[in-house]
UniProtKB/TrEMBL annotation:
PANTHER family: HYBRID SIGNAL TRANSDUCTION HISTIDINE KINASE J
Transmembrane domains' residue ranges: none
Regions of compositional bias (Polar residues) in chain numbering: 1-18
Record organism: Aspergillus leporis
Protein name: CheY-like superfamily
Keyword field: Phosphoprotein, Two-component regulatory system
Length: 203
């Protein structure tokens, strides 16, 4: 299977030792063990909503291509990974350059639930003295198989919201507006019986 990790404008290359740690990722590293954590805070800086750096975990090449192209139309920079392990590895390598993660649930090697736990573990490790991570990255379930009855499972795992497939791109644009704007996030919180619309989980 061809490698799917790529930046919007060029393929990612091997790591350059001189590259600053907050610049976009060059290649994934091996993820450590994980545990669930929800103790870190959301981003609070005011980066423009039109220039988010979004890490995507999606094993289907067609879905990846469509998602990348549509997010680029919103002005975002997109990094694609093909499974949960690769996604968590890339995040650990360059955590501070990502504004949000879109995570499929059913993927080979490592699934989306496990990958999200791995990301939250890396943030928790940073919080107790390892390589600093500046923020708790918002992670959205991006899957056709997510269900309202499993909402608490997603929250406990470390997800911040969800969007159903096939992705409604105007809706995902509305949700991404809430990455840095609390009032917009609050206007798209979970409502019972409205699962198909996607939204943010209340914390």
């Amino acid at each position: 299977m061809p490698t799917m990790l790529q930046q919007t404008s060029r393929s990612l290359t091997a790591p350059n030792p001189s590259t600053h740690k907050d610049q976009p990722p060059k290649s994934p590293t091996r993820p450590d063990t994980f545990r669930t954590t929800r103790s870190l805070s959301y981003p609070t800086d005011k980066r423009s909503k039109t220039n988010l750096h979004i890490l995507v975990a999606e094993d289907d090449p067609t879905n990846s291509t469509i998602l990348r192209k549509r997010l680029e139309m919103f002005g975002h920079t997109v990094y694609l990974t093909r499974d949960g392990k690769e996604c968590a590895s890339v995040y650990r390598e360059k955590a501070n350059c990502f504004d949000a993660v879109l995570m499929d649930l059913q993927m080979p090697v490592v699934d989306g639930l496990t990958a999200t736990k791995m990301i939250r573990e890396s943030e928790q490790s940073s919080a107790i003295g390892q390589t600093p991570i500046k923020k708790r990255v918002p992670i959205l379930v991006t899957s056709s198989s997510s269900t309202e009855r499993d909402r608490q499972v997603y929250i406990d795992t470390g997800f911040d919201g969800w969007i159903m497939k096939p992705v409604g791109f105007h809706r995902i644009g509305d949700l991404l507006d809430g990455v840095y704007q609390n009032e917009l996030r609050s206007s798209h919180l979970y409502k019972p019986g409205m699962w198909d619309e996607g939204g943010w989980f209340e914390r």
